[in-house]
Amino acid sequence: MATSVNRSCLTYLLHLAQDNLDFRLPEIKALLALRGKSFHPSGDFQEKTPFWCLDGLAEEDVRGVMARSVCAKSAFELWGHGQTHSELRTSLLNYPSENMSPFMHKDSTYRINVYTFNKTLEFPDRIKRIDAMDYLPFEGTVSLKSPQHIFCLLEDYGTDPNDIPEHPNYIYFGRWIADGQRELIRSHSVKNRHFIGNTSMDAGLSFIMANHAKVNENDLVFDPFVGTGSLLVACSHFRAYVCGTDIDYNTIHGRGRSSRKNQKWRGPDENIRANLRQYGTEEMYIDVMISDASKPVWREAPLFDAIITDPPYGIRESTRRTGSHKDVTKHADGIYLESHVPVSQAYHLSDIFTDLLNFSAHHLVVGGRLVYWLPVYRPEYSEETVPLHPCLRILSNCEQTLSSHTSRRLITMEKIRKPEELDGLAQFADGRFSPYQGHNAFREKYFSGLNKRCIKEDNKAVVNGQ
């Protein structure tokens, strides 16, 4: 009984991928929250490093996180650590033998791997590292192909490839628990997807967004700017029911010009449903429909467990909504013909985000999450430019750099209460809730910076006599 108690109070080591650094902590926190657990780092926590030590978890919690995470590579039960191999030895010898013995008895098989971050070791050096650990009481048989237990010696040589130290900054040893879901980035790559468009979301980021939103089995997830459905694909993988809307008729129906090289028109079965069918999750597909995100079409009720979206920025896709500054004469019976194409007008970014937050406040369940991309002009960015709503609180704000002067930020918000009548007046009572109008000029600032860079490169070429 004492052993089972000890095994529920272990320290676990996460090895994380060194990309999308800003997105890693919110993802791990969200996945722990799905299991009712909090994030408790052990010791001196440094967010940007590839190794995190976590306390207060059981092994099934770690396995649950790794079954979802695309930011984490592997997880280990941490047995020992130190700045030198001597410190590692002392740490391992002080580790409770009752925690080791279930995995080291004579009837077991095992393998020891050596992993180095930011440095490559020759094979003989790896063997030396393993042989030097003969002080551990392994009684089982070595099996390189199919061991029952895998152990790993991990050496961290820092994150600067131009300044690699001779000796590791830190060393860890532990029992392998599980790998993350990095394979999803390859298996769901848009390069191999049946139906894509100019703005189809990268597979890795799609899964990160689904994790930030705490998408869970049997949830109902909505994307109001669905496009070609990349976010629906990611959410359906986690067994959530998915639906969406978009103002673009051709995208929703899979018609018009193709985004693929050497293909002029889209094929007869290029649509969002076909994408989910490709990955075996068609049964999670509810439907998509043509709709204007600025117009209320849903009944007033908390319908969705999560809203995940990538609004148009006006770069690759225009920001449009139905309507006109002119008087439009309606048909006598108030019904348009099927071939009717509504008049559209500009949909400013500040209005897009105001409408998105208002929609989420009314249609998310309490505790549900909104995850969306906010484009920013970096020289003018501050936290005050992030849209707010009285019913939603910001949980995370992660930056993905697009250029020297632009980026987009992944905003995760959680609904904390039901909307009230006076919420519509919040922007007048509290300046924090007023829409930031600077977002409306993002397109002009984006291309302004691009043109300046092109002119600078042209001038440099002239100076060099090219």
Task: Explain what the structure shows.
- The structure is a single chain.
- The chain is α/β, with parallel strands linked by helices.
- It has 2 domains: 2-181, VC0802-like (2-Layer Sandwich); 185-324 and 341-448, Vaccinia Virus protein VP39 (Rossmann fold).
- The protein has 14 helices and 16 strands.
- The protein has helices at residues 2-7, 21-34, 59-66, 85-93, 97-100, 123-131, 183-187, 203-212, 230-237, 249-253, 272-278, 349-363, 426-429, 442-463, and strands spanning 10-16, 51-57, 72-82, 109-117, 141-142, 149-156, 170-179, 220-223, 241-246, 285-290, 304-309, 320-322, 344-346, 364-377, 392-401, 406-415.
- The strands form 3 sheets. Strands 2-1-3-7-6-4-5 form a 7-stranded mixed β-sheet. Strands 10-9-8-11-14-16-15 form a 7-stranded mixed β-sheet.
- It is elongated.
